Amino acid sequence: MNTRSMKGWLYLIPAIAFLGVFVVYPLFDVVVYSFEEGYNSASQTFFGTGTYNFSYVLRDTYFIQALKNTFILVIITVPLSTGLALLISVGLSSIKKLQELYQTIFFLPYVTNTLAVGLVFMILFQKTAYTDGFVNQIIHLFGGSSVDFIDGPYWAKMTVMCIYTVWVVMPFKVLILTSALASVNPDYYKAAKVDGTSSWRIFYKITLPMISPMIFYLIITGFIGAFKAYGDVVAIFGTNLNAAGMNTIVGYVYDMLYGDGGGYPSYASAAALVLFAIVLTITVINLLIQRRSVQTS
Amino acid sequence: MKIVLEHITKRYPNRNKKIGGLVTAVEDFDLTIPDGKLVALLGPSGCGKSTTLNMICGLEDPTEGKIWFGDTDVTRLSPEVRGVGMVFQSYALYPHMTVLQNIMFPLENLKGADKLSRDEMVRRAEHAASLVQISELLERKPSQVSGGQQQRVAIARALVKTPKVLLLDEPLSNLDARLRLTTREEIRRIQRETGITTVFVTHDQEEAMSISDEIVVMENGVIRQVGKPQRVYDEPDNLFVSKFLGTPPINVFEGHVERGQLYIGTERVLDVFQAPDGPVTVGVRPEGFVVDADGPFTCGLVAVERMGRDTSVVATHDALEAVQMRAIVSSDARVDTSASNVRFRLRPEKTRLFDAQTGQRIHFVGETMEEPAEVMAREARAAAGAPKPEAGATA
Amino acid sequence: MSDVTQDQEQRAFERARKIRMGVTYTLLTLWALIVLFPFYWMVLTSIKSYGSYNAEYVPLLYTTSPTLQNYVDAFTAVPLARYFMNTVIFTGITTALMLVVIVLAAFAFSRLDFAGKDLLFTAFLSLMMIPNELVVITNFVTITNWGLRNTFLGLILPSVTSVFYIYLLKENFDQIPDDLYKAAKVDGCSDFKYLMKVMIPICRPTIVTVVLLKVIECWNSYVWPRLITDNELYFLVSNGIQEIRENGFGRENIPAMMAAVVVISVPLIVLFLIFRKKIMEGVSRGGTKG
Questions:
Q1: C62 is a domain residue
Q2: Is residue C98 part of a domain?
Q3: How close A106 comes to chain C (CA, Å)?
Q4: Handedness of CA B286, B291, B296, B298 (dihedral sign)
Q5: CA–CA gap between residue C276 and residue C273 (Å, rounded)
Q6: I need a labelling partner for B249 at 20 to 30 A (CA). Which of A34, A104, B50, C185 fits?
Q7: Is C269 a domain residue?
Q8: Pair C135, C247 in one domain
Q9: pTM for this entry
Q10: Chains meeting A at 3+ CB pairs closer than 8 A?
Q11: Which structural domain, as residue segments, surrounds residue C75?
Q12: What pLDDT, in 10s, does the model give residues C264-286?
């Protein structure tokens, strides 16, 4: 190796060292862990190798619950947030006055601490002995009866979780779609207007196809993000998610690793790999759909 | 400083990895640049002229051959050790520094015994700036000055270390036409004032011809001709050089020589004694045509464009390589614009013959306005024992 | 006659446009309220006194007797100041280290030629697809084995590198014209000096963006600090908030809790309002939440 080559690698030593120790090595290690049965983190010994960890995790009722919660969250929030973001972005790009102000406000949740604002959501939705909470007041206004969204029925808790998740992911989606809409060449709109095309047709036939790659990008990242939901759920329901019945797959991984009744890196690894497999599958399916729809259009 | 390039060859690995192998950018480049001269490397894009300049500069190492600055072998030395200044096509000014900081930058990199005090750096930078007449712009950023001024900043930065060699890569290509004229005179002035050996690269033959002491015409990494600009224009060694120099370009015809006579099509157009029989490529400069109602060369008339001093006759001919030809004739020439044909006589000193296959120059008697003594000497040589019998037979 | 119909058409068109604009602004304002309301509620609650908050069975949208007592409590009853300082230290060191690592790496990829460069860069890019959840398990074990639990080093080390930022910076470095590098070589400038004096100043906007994004990421990080610290001395604000919520003021002192939430939210909101354009531009160039 000549000195010039040496120099290149020299500059990369820090990056390679950090990535090697904290990304590449763990990547292999997690697979190894997942096949080591009965691993004891205190003595760092294990009984044997096999697929027991996976079968344990897949039969664990907590994991099944986490899987169910995560899927419901994904199925509801990804289409909802993407659709809402599209609506808002189109509205945002059609106005001139106050556009910047709205843009700034809409982006605000992105820079706030998820845990901190989650606490506010909890208070807004919570029903205690002292107060029914703000949201319940609104429900009263429409003649409904109060619900405890935080410690109450499953669907109520799921509702809060979905609402907060949508609130948290919206800024990113609105930003991406707004800049996608802004980058559509205005000549297309002018040409369509000259042809006498109606606004709805312009949107459907020109705008939507032009920004569809970005919509697909948002759907894919939305799926990946929602499958990895954890922090915002903790913010609302506290760290003991299993007790609340609101655990997610990632939450399950961390609980297995560390937390109440933790210390099982093997189970955690197996669960993490299951999550990775799910995310990978969904992403691949998404990409296939995207390719097909691009080809046919 | 005299620069000697000794059989320089540069090969790169092929950028297209599927094909692989090596690409030769410059091959067996052998040239001596005399001290204090302004020399242009001229050629179409991709001919290896910039690579050659980069090798003189030290930005690239030649694969084979040696480079000498005076008596020093600089082949493996890095640019800052060679003592060269370079001006890039894009000027390569540092956008975040002021004009003064840009000019001072080379001085700041001096180390050890050469290290200068801050005041000395500023003084030298100001001197370089005054040489290119931008003293009033020192505090501005490059983006705040015009293209022509950026060019001057780049030259000042190249000159600030008082280099032994100044290199310019397409120095005028980013300027508008008017600025190009003044700037090239400016470069000439600065070069004369400083006496620095200067090499510049250009694809614009007019630019090269107008200011350089010598031009080097390149094609596909090979030197095709070296010489004084007018000499290379008048006496091209080969078809490529003749076509590359001159605007409007030389008009090229297919023709053949038979017993000392040049034929284009069926017409016998010129005496070309001592040229060997066979097919030839004929190049006629636009100014090589004389309108003559009794002329031997008949062309289809397309248009007559009168432009003040000159008159251009646009015409066609079956043996023409291009679609149309252009003849520049004196404005008092009478051309019947209603006629479908125009007849010309060819000036032998503006007509050049080339081998139909190799494109190499074929000489004939009367092609130059030579001194009679030279003609006699050549005829004597031919009489003493002509190497080509058929040429001798026609004489 | 045709003038009249044209006029009518024009008026109908105008009316439709006005209605559409009205609907648009209503929708946008509604969403803006939904976004802003939690922030308003948080500030409002934080200035209600403990007594008045708990007396409101129907929570009021305003308060008549604002108090700063909750802020005093937030800094005295729980170690909020320490959480705050910890986060500042963590964010500062992590961002600084990251900057060194990514600048050197991006420079090598963009400017230097060395054997195996393309292959290595592809390998780097493919690491972008690895979810954090997959590697966090081993990192937890690694840091534990190194005895770095409840230390700043343990918090910082796994958070330093980001392939995405290397990629972003490399792309930006690539846009600097080649001629500039050649000119610097002719001027006798070393590679490292070229990096420091030319590339970094030219790419400062991107570097600022990367720093801002990393600061946001650090300030909000929760999962890794939660795993690696169980000693309050090393809690960051996210963990602090969770701790306050579960064991802090007692579950019922909501106003004090909200004061703490305001305190930890303010720095990022201020940062955002100052660097709004840069942050939004940076995020739209490929950032994701978390």
A1: no
A2: yes
A3: 6
A4: positive
A5: 5
A6: B50
A7: yes
A8: yes
A9: 0.82
A10: C
A11: 71-286
A12: 999 999 999 999 998 888 888 76
